[in-house]
Write a structure and sequence with these properties.
By secondary structure, the chain is α/β, with parallel strands linked by helices. 30% of the residues lie in helices and 22% in strands. It is globular, with a radius of gyration of 16 Å. Pfam families: Isochorismatase.
């Protein structure tokens, strides 16, 4: 399996223990972690750049406040010592993190983005990536969202929230595809 000749970074957003707890709420894509792990294994085999994004909250009562088990990476998706880790305090992984500079220093122009949550950190990061000129792909079955009420107060399922977020990104900021489609495209 070969990735493009130029480096393509896999960016894994906020796959922390707190995101897998029942208290996080109703979510879609129950196999997202499996798909992320598949891509992570592939990127490691291909020796392509991997960036793990970790949300560190400034709020004392947050599950993502530093030095809590829920703020740690999920063990099966944890970074290896040589893999780059970016900590962020806002949804967008590009804001005050040095991520853009890190990518430019390595001449990385293509990104594959996975993680959580589709309508928050994934969408914010993908919008910036697209606006900054990165060739960006979002893997829709390796991201997930949580159920939420819309602005009018109507309850929306996790799948509805996820689908609307992907619709916001599709063809304007990124290309949307499945894990299977990405792997098939890479085999060509």
């Amino acid at each position: 399996m070969n990735l493009p000749n130029t480096p393509t970074a896999l960016i894994i957003i906020d796959m922390q223990i707190g995101m897998s707890l029942p208290t996080a709420g109703e979510r879609n894509n129950p196999t997202a972690e499996k798909n992320i792990a598949t891509l992570l294994t592939l990127w490691r085999q291909e020796k392509q750049p991997i960036i793990h994004i970790r949300h560190i909250s400034r709020s004392l009562n947050s599950s993502f406040y530093p030095n809590q088990p829920s703020a740690d990476f999920q063990p099966e998706l944890a970074p290896l010592p040589h893999e780059h880790v970016v900590e962020k305090n806002v949804p967008d992984a590009f804001i005050q993190s040095g991520l853009e500079r890190w990518l430019h220093q390595r001449n990385i122009k293509s990104l594959v983005i996975v993680g959580v949550s589709t309508n928050n950190s994934v969408e914010a990061t993908v919008r910036s990536a697209g606006n900054l000129g990165f060739n960006t792909i979002v893997i829709n079955d390796a991201t997930f969202a949580f159920a939420k009420h819309d602005y009018s107060g109507r309850p929306r399922t996790a799948e509805e929230v996820h689908d609307m977020s992907l619709a916001n990104l599709d063809d304007e900021y990124a290309k949307i595809m499945t894990t299977e489609k990405l792997i098939k495209d890479m085999e060509k």
